[in-house]
TrEMBL record:
Residues 126-136 have a biased composition (Polar residues). CDD domains: Rho. It comes from Tieghemostelium lacteum. Residues 115-124 have a biased composition (Basic and acidic residues). This is Rho GTPase. One of its GO terms (molecular function) is GTP binding.
Length: 193
């Protein structure tokens, strides 16, 4: 049996949300100048503690956030490690949004910092440190915090493995969102413990 989970991705503009999803889906960083949105797709199967999960992943448009969030099982709150305002927006805007949406419970969420390759180059002016990310993660009570790069794929798989783990830890039942019913994908093991 495969447990299907709806996962939505939210955060500011141009922070690498769609690139994250395309790269995870295709194992290749998109080279488009304007990266197209990555409409919903089914992840490969992720095994955690003997249970197979499959994420139904949505690149949620901001204007439809409420609609997407209603039956989400897990959420990725994303900022860019080289864009401080996107980091500040997590606390002042996106985290509040997650809490504001009415529903039986707040979906568990993973805090994700993108574009790690650029931050680690040390040339970005507005970069956000790992320590700052850890502090934010604690203050908003994120289930996990991951820094990643879609360009190098460093930390990429962990983002989605942690999404499953966050759901699992929450002890919730899948909400069974409309869009959770679809084909299964290839299998991959969960690498987190
Ligand atoms: N160096 C580097 N650039 C990245 C990375 N991820 C995304 N980018 C670049 O950042 C820009 C924005 O990426 P998108 O994936 O379109 O970001 P988005 O958050 O989906 O943007 P909107 O949907 O327009 O809000 C593009 O030029 C990407 O090539 C990364 O990991 N490293
Ligand atoms: Mg996008």
């Amino acid at each position: 049996m495969v447990v299907k989970l709806k996962c939505i991705v939210i955060g500011g503009g141009k922070i690498g949300k769609s690139s994250l999803l395309h790269t995870y889906k295709d194992f290749a960083f998109p080279t488009d100048y304007e990266v197209p949105s990555c409409p919903n797709f089914q992840s490969r199967t992720i095994n955690a503690d003997g249970t197979d999960y499959q994420l139904d992943i949505h690149d949620a448009p901001e204007y439809q956030f409420d609609e997407y969030y209603q039956d989400a099982d897990v959420c990725l709150l994303v900022y860019s490690l080289i864009d401080r305002s996107s980091f500040e927006d997590i606390q002042s805007k996106y985290y509040r949004e997650v809490q504001r949406v009415p529903g039986p419970r707040t979906a568990p969420f993973v805090l994700v910092g993108t574009k790690k390759d650029r931050r680690d180059e040390g040339t970005a002016k507005e970069s956000v440190s790992t320590e700052e990310g850890n502090q934010l993660s604690k203050s908003i009570n994120a289930n996990h915090f991951v820094e990643c790069s879609s360009m190098t794929q460093q930390g990429l798989r962990e983002v989605f493995d942690y999404a499953v783990r966050a759901f699992q830890k929450s002890g919730a039942k899948p909400k069974g969102g409309k869009s959770s019913k679809s084909k299964s994908g290839k299998k991959s093991g969960c690498i987190i413990n």
